[in-house]
Each structure stands twice: as C-alpha cells, then as structure tokens.
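can u pls check wat happens w/ geranylgeranyl diphosphate
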Amino acid sequence: MTQHRMVDAKKTLGNYGQAVNDYLETCLADRGIMDRLRESMEYSLLAGGKRLRPALCLAWAAHFGLDFNVTMPFACSIELIHTYSLIHDDLPAMDDDDLRRGKPSNHRQFDEATAILAGDALLTEAFGLMLNTRGVAAERVLQAAAVVAYGAGANGMVGGQMLDMALTGKAGVELAELQRMHSLKTGALITASCLSGAILAGATDDDLANVIAYGKHVGMAFQIVDDILDVVGDEKELGKPVGSDEGQGKNTYPSLVGLDESRDMAVQVIAEACLAIRGYSGTQADFLRSLAEYIVQRAN
Ligand code: GRG
C-alpha cells in the first residue's frame, strides 16, 4: 500500500492564506469603486478568515499542474463570494448578528443598505474576476465559472440558506434533512472550490469524480465540526467569539445525534474524503489529505 506523507496542514493553509490575502488586498484597489462601497467590501473581505475555499481551489489546480499565479484570481473570486454570503447571513433579515470574526458585522459597522450592496458587489465582481482568468483555455474558464455559479446559487449555497430558514425552529427534523441542508449551504461552495480548480487545470472526468467526492466529504466534515465547536465553545483557533453562531431553534449535528456520534461521523466522513483521493501522490495531494485530517482534529 502506498504510504502518504502527512504535512503540517495548519501551516500550509496559513501560507496559502497569506498569498490569498496579498491578492485580495489589491484586487479592489484602483478600480474607481466609490469609497464607502469599497471600504464596506474590503472591511469584510480583509477581516481574516481561514481562506479555506481559495486554498482548496489553488491546491487542486496545482495538483493537476496549473501554475499557482494563473489560478490565484479565480481562487480569490470564491472568497469574494464566501464573504458576500457572510455579510448577507449577518443581516437583520437573516441571522441578525452583531459580530463576525470578533468585529462588528458589516451592517453594524456601516449600515444595512451599504452591507446589502457590498455583498451584491462582491458577488458580481467575483464573476468578473473569474471570467478575466488568463493563461487557461476559455472553455475551461467558462466551465469552472459555471461550476462556481451552480455551487453558490439557487441549487447550492443560496438554496441551502433557504432550506436552513425552513428548518429553523421545526421539530422532528431528520438527520437526512440536516445533511441535505448543509450539503447545499456549506458543502456546495466547498465542492465547487475543489472542482473549479481541477477543471481549470484540465483534469480528466475520472479525476473530477474523485475531486467531487473529496469536496463533498470535506464540506460535510467541515460543517459537523463547526457544529461541534459551537457546542464545546472551543473556537480559539478560528478566531471566532465563543458561541457566536448559537441560534435559537437551530438544528445541529450534536442536537440531533449527540456530541460523540457527531465526532464519529466527522472522522468517518474524512476517511471517505481521503479514500476518494488515495490514488494521488505529491505535495498537493499530501496537503489535501492532511487538511482533511486537520479539519476533524479541530473538533477534539
Ligand atoms: C446569505 C446567501 C447566503 C448564504 C449564507 C455561508 C452561509 C450561507 C452562512 C454563514 C453562516 C454559517 C455558519 C454557515 C456555515 C458554514 C460556515 C461554517 C461558514 C463559515 O466558513 P469559514 O469557517 O469562515 O470558512 P471564515 O471566517 O474562516 O472565512
């Protein structure tokens, strides 16, 4: 059996995050965006965050041979989409959160209308960034952008958010319903991050199927762990205030199956993610496996 090398996923993710931050710091500058709108967009875009989604896109693209610098704008565009979703999620009409990543949420720092528009602008600019990708065949760029649109849209993250609202406060929610909601709300954009990177790099259909399986399982484990961390309150590594996502009537993995069973599920799901990519070797594959393991370790 092939022995895979474990790498320090936290450190490597940090390195990816630094490169992503460097790009994000400049991507809205000198574009003639009016000051208050740009400030509101950058306030949330540059407020920290693990940069997991761009890191996944970059790592999968690099695994299949695409130059890091070529992928960077596309990978960062996914972080613009993630940031818009967080801004809108915090709005009074949604979760009505005053804090995000330990700072006032966007609408508290600016105002509600500005926060809505900053989110709208981030989402729209993201597709501009994607479609301006250079050094990759246009057909691949279009296919990758379509994958991200699907993952972020009505059949992906937005649909998941809608389902989440429908399930909140509902009694007798089944595990399968919770899983479906999270596979859309959280999993779809994570899977799209992996898949779009692989598509940009020209991966084969067989490889894409493995990448999808990896992304789906990582997305699911990520959400289970997020739910566990909300319960145990150990958010130190995430820089998130303790209990920040506690919601009234929210159905979570621990509330449905208990803490121990949730931990077991996360371990099992990550094993599936690693199984999907067992045939891959090299620096990026080692990182992607270690990253999957790291996601679960945070829960313990
Ligand atoms: C409003 C359209 C719309 C969608 C909102 C992503 C989302 C859907 C809401 C955010 C709330 C939440 C807790 C979602 C679960 C997914 C999740 C754990 C998001 C946070 O992602 P991280 O941990 O965040 O990658 P950082 O801060 O590291 O960027």
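Residues 3-297 form a domain with the Farnesyl Diphosphate Synthase fold (CATH 1.10.600.10).
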